[in-house]
Structures are given as structure tokens and as C-alpha cells.
């Protein structure tokens, strides 16, 4: 991909949107090392890539509510990519992650998937596993970036202790598996509690705890992790607010009232 190209090709736009999702909005700038790395792979300048990412920001409804307009004067293709992702997160997440790995991005990460693995892969089940790993990686990074890598409940900001929690479980809704609006950034403790229905989130985005655990023997961790969090509003993400329909599902089907 030549730096002399004036028009962004589809693959480039998909990569730029992927980055837009996976990098906290406040860190989108031409000195971000991830943007610099991708720009080198695309044969473009870091400024060009960061500006294209900000072109996507103008379509983001959460940013509009905060009076953040993004960069205007993008192409019609930007809107098409935005709509395509929002209508089919799984397919586009897989496609964008695959392009990145084929370019070599992420080769030094612990959970890397080598490019030649795609070339030699034959078995249907193996292909499925690769796709699942790629889209899960996208979902995790997008959700955690939206919450600026902190637990939405307790604000713990150690990435190694954070999970991208599905509000509607992976097994219950194929269409919501990769949708970041079906995700919460939660520490390992609150992720487990949310998954088991010990806690949930109400319509005002406040934590509610199950009466099932209010009868349990009290300890310091119980007080800090649950009692002090009860009724507290979660940290809201910069983008991809948790969907109210998904939260309704969790309260009605998973939460232990």
C-alpha cells in the first residue's frame, strides 16, 4: 500500500476503524506507538492514520452526546464501513483482525496467530477456532479501551486483572457476541460476580447486588467489593455505552434477585 495513494482502500479503512475501536479516544494521535506501527505497515503517515480514525468519530453517537464532533471531510466510504461494522460486528471484526495479523501486527503478542497458519489451515473446526480467537481478541480490546482499561465497578486499572464481560452471554446471542455495546470492562472478581448473577446493572447504570449474598457471612472483601459498590453508578465508557436491552436481559435472566 503506497503512501502516494490519495484514496483509502477498503482494507485500509477497515484497519483504521479497527484501531478506532481498540484505542481509547483520548489516545488517538500521531505519536501513539500503535498508530505509528500501523502507519508504517500501510505506507502512510501516523497523522494520516490518526486523522482517518477521527473521521470515524463523527459518526459515533456517544461522542456526539459529549459535543465531540470528530473530523469532517472524510469519504463516503467511511460511513459505509461504520454501518457495515455496526450491522455485523463479528464478520468485520474477524476480517479486520485477520488483515492486521497478516500484515504482521501483533506478532509479538502472547496470543499471536501466525500468518502462515491461515495459509495452511484446512480443517473446518480449526478455522472456526481461529475466527473465535480473533473476534474475541477484538471484543476484549475494544471493550477495555472504551473504559480506558479500568473496571467499570471498582475502577481497578490493572489490564491483566480485567475481562471484557458479555452482558448477554456468548452462547445466548450470536449477533451480540462481538458487539462492544454488549460488553463491560470488569475486574476478575466483578466479572465472576456478574457472570453468576450476584450483581447486575440497573437502568440508571448503577450496581445492584443480589439478596442471595446479603445473608452471607461478612468479611472485609465482601464489604469493599459488594456493599460499598451497591447503588454506585458504574464508570461510563467513552464509546459503546452498554445497551439497555442487554442489561434488561441480564437482570431478567441471570441476576439472582
Molecular structure report:
The protein has twelve helices and four strands. It has 257 residues and is mainly alpha-helical. The protein folds into two domains: 10-146, no CATH class; 159-253, no CATH class. The chain has a two-stranded antiparallel ribbon. Strands 3-4 form a two-stranded antiparallel sheet. The longest helix has 23 residues, at 124-146. It starts with 9 loop residues before the first helix and ends with a helix.
What amount of the residues lies in strands? 5-15%
The count of helical stretches stands at 12
**Gap between N and C termini:** 55 Å
What is the number of beta strands? 4
Give descriptors for this structure.
257 residues; mainly alpha; 2 domains; two-stranded antiparallel sheet; two-stranded antiparallel ribbon; 4 strands; 6% strand; elongated
Write a brief structural summary.
The protein is mainly alpha-helical and 257 residues long.
Topology:
Blueprint: H1 10-22, H2 33-42, H3 46-57, H4 61-65, H5 76-87, H6 89-103, H7 115-120, H8 124-146, E1 162-166, E2 183-187, H9 188-195, E3 199-201, E4 207-209, H10 211-214, H11 220-227, H12 244-253
Antiparallel strand pairs: 1-2, 3-4
Helix pairs in contact: 1-3, 1-5, 1-6, 2-3, 5-6, 6-8
